[in-house]
Design brief:
By secondary structure, this protein is an alpha/beta fold. The protein has 2 domains: 63 residues, DNA polymerase, domain 1 (Orthogonal Bundle); 300 residues, Aldolase class I (TIM Barrel, Alpha-Beta Barrel), CATH 3.20.20.70. The protein has 11 helices and 13 strands. A hairpin with a 5-residue loop joins β4 and β5. The chain is elongated, with a radius of gyration of 22 Å. It binds S-adenosyl-L-homocysteine and iron/sulfur cluster. S-adenosyl-L-homocysteine binds next to β10 and β12. The site of S-adenosyl-L-homocysteine has 18 residues, from β10 and β12.
Length: 391
Amino acid sequence: MDAKAPITQDVLTIPRKAPEGPQNLIGLSRDQMRDALIAAGTSEKQAKMRVGQIWQWIYHWGLRDFEQMTNLSKEYRAMLAETFVIELPEVVTRQISDDGTRKYLVRIAGGHEVEVVYIPETDRGTLCISSQVGCTLTCSFCHTGTQKLVRNLTAAEIVGQVMVARDDLEEWPVPGAPRVEARLLSNIVLMGMGEPLYNFDNVRDAMKIAMDPEGISLSRRRITLSTSGVVPEIARTAAEIGCQLAISFHATTDEVRDRLVPINKRWPLADLLDALRAYPKVSNSERITFEYVMLDGVNDSDADARRLIKLIDGIPAKINLIPFNEWPGAPYKRSSNNRIRAFADIIYNAGYASPVRKPRGEDIMAACGQLKSATERARKSKAQIAQETGL
Ligand code: SAH
Ligand code: SF4
C-alpha cells in the first residue's frame, strides 16, 4: 500500500463552463461537445454527426466563424452563434529571433500571460507549450519555480496555444489546395511553464484534441510531455495519452536530486525508475528522454555520468544534456563546455544518444526556465526606468 500522502493540487482550476455567457467550444472533448450541443437543443440522434461537422470546421479547417460552416443549416448556425463561441487566447506580442525562433506572449482569462515558443529546425518545427501559469514545485535551478503559482490552464488554453501558433504560421489547410505533408508545426513539447502532470485532465484532453485524426492530427509520437517525476501520474500518461515522455532527471543520487527537484523527496529515484521502466510497454513508445541540466560542480562529474548509465540500465533512453540557462540570482552556474563534452562522451560511449541541447532564441529570452519570468523582469525594469527618469 502506498503510505504516501495523496497529491495535493493547491491550484485554482477554472471551471470548464463559465457560469453564464456563451460557452467556448474549444477544448471540449468530442463527448463534452456532444453534451453541449444536446443541452442547446440538438437531438440525440443528430448530435454525433453535428460534432463531427463542427469538429472538422474548427480543428481541420481552423474556422472561427459559425456563419462559414456551410454544411449546417442557416438556423442551426444561428443557434450555434447565439449559444457558443470559438475563442483562442489573445496573442499580445510576437517576437522573432535571429535564428527563426518565435516567442508568443498570450493572454488568458484573468489577465494572466503565458509564453509559447516555436523552434524551427531542418527536419521539424517544435512548439513548446505551457500547462500552468507558474508552478507549485520549487526546483532550485528553475526560474518558473520561483514564481508564485497562479493557476492551471484549461484544456482550451492548452490546445489554444497550438492553434494560435498554427494561425501565425498560416498552417490551416486551404480548401481546394493540395495537401501539404511537411508541417511547419510538426511536434509539441510540454516543456514550457508548469508541471503538466499536476494538471493531468486538462493536458490529456488538450493533447487528445491535438491528436484527433479529424483535426490537427499530430501523432502521439510527435508529442513529448516533460515531468519532474509525478510518479502516480506517469502510468496514467502511458494509458490515457500515450505520448512520448521526458523526465527531468537532473541528478544521480537522492541526496542531490532532493535539492534540485524537491518532488524527489516524495517519489525518490527508485520509485521513479520503476515507473519509467513500465512506461514504454504500456504506451508503446520507443524511448524515454532523460533531461539533465548541467550545473557546474553539482551534478556534472564523470562519476555522475557513470551512475546515470547504471541507473537507467535497461530503459530505452535518450539523454538530453541541457546547459543551464542562468538567470539573475540563480544559485548555480552553467558547466563548462569541456565538462559537458566529457560527460556526453561517457554517455555516448555507453551506447546512448546524448545530444547537448542548443540554446535557441537566446536573444529573445526563449530558453527553458526563462519563460514568462523574463517578461516580468522586462516589465519591472521598464517600470524602474520610468520611476528613475520620472517619465
Ligand atoms: N515542469 C516540467 C516541464 C517544464 S520545464 C518539468 O520540470 O519537466 C522543461 C525543462 O526545462 C525541464 O527539464 C526543466 O528541468 C528544465 N529547466 C528549467 N529551468 C531551467 C534552466 N534555468 N536551465 C536549463 N533547463 C531548465
Ligand atoms: Fe516546475 Fe518543471 Fe520548473 Fe520544476 S523544472 S519548478 S517542475 S516548471
